[in-house]
Design goal:
Elements (H helix, E strand, L loop, with lengths): L3 H14 L8 H10 L1 E5 L4 E3 L7 E7 L2 E5 L8 E6 L4 E2 L1 H6 L6 E4 L4 E7 H9 L2 H20 L4
Antiparallel strand pairs: 1-8, 2-7, 3-6, 3-8, 4-5, 4-7
The structure holds ligand WNU.
Ligand WNU binds next to β5, β6, α3 and α5.
Length: 152
């Protein structure tokens, strides 16, 4: 069995490699490792459904997901993005204080996501102005691209 210490080190160095978190001070990153949960998904499983309330932020540690969204003029949600290891999602509902704006569907068996709840996300982002500004800007950009493709 893997020790807690080994698990901690593994996720710590992984989170260091996530571009969004690269600049976070060591103690912050260590705190995130302490409070994150790991969720496993199989291909076809919905990790997030658009329109639902959401209180969690995800970082992909293994596998792949696709992003789909309901769009005017199409009977089925349209595929708009693919995310892999080191990518993250779910920040928009937390930052815009809105419901989930897209579906996230697991696209590979045994996909692992690191999950951070709202409280810890706010602690991670809130005390770090650059990160907050970056994410805010990004989320606004997502809203603009939603409008361009006539998301419902
Ligand atoms: C998109 N429009 C919308 C993605 C992930 C992170 C970044 C792109 Cl920084 P949520 C659904 C999630 C949403 C985003 C993610 O889906 N998403 C998008 C789009 O074009 N959402 N509205 N592309 S992948 C992605 C940039 O994370 O957060 O909580 O749940 O609304």
């Amino acid at each position: 069995m893997q020790t807690t210490q080994a698990r901690h080190e593994e996720y710590f160095s992984f989170l260091r490699s996530v571009s969004l978190l690269r600049e976070l001070p060591e103690e912050k990153l260590a705190k995130i490792v302490d409070c994150l949960e790991v969720d496993h998904f199989e291909k076809g499983e919905y990790i997030i459904r658009e329109g639902e309330e959401g209180n969690t932020f995800f970082i992909i540690a293994k596998g792949e997901v696709i992003v789909t969204q309901s769009t005017e003029g199409f009977p089925e949600p349209q595929e708009i993005n693919t995310l892999g290891v080191g990518d993250y999602f779910g920040e928009k509902a937390l930052i815009s204080e809105d419901v989930r704006s897209a579906n996230i569907i697991c696209n590979e068996n045994d996909t692992h996501c690191l999950v951070v709840d709202r409280e810890n996300f706010n602690q991670m982002v809130g005390t770090y102005e650059e990160l907050q500004a970056y994410l805010k800007e990004y989320v606004e950009e997502l809203s603009r691209s939603d409008e361009r493709r006539n998301a419902l």
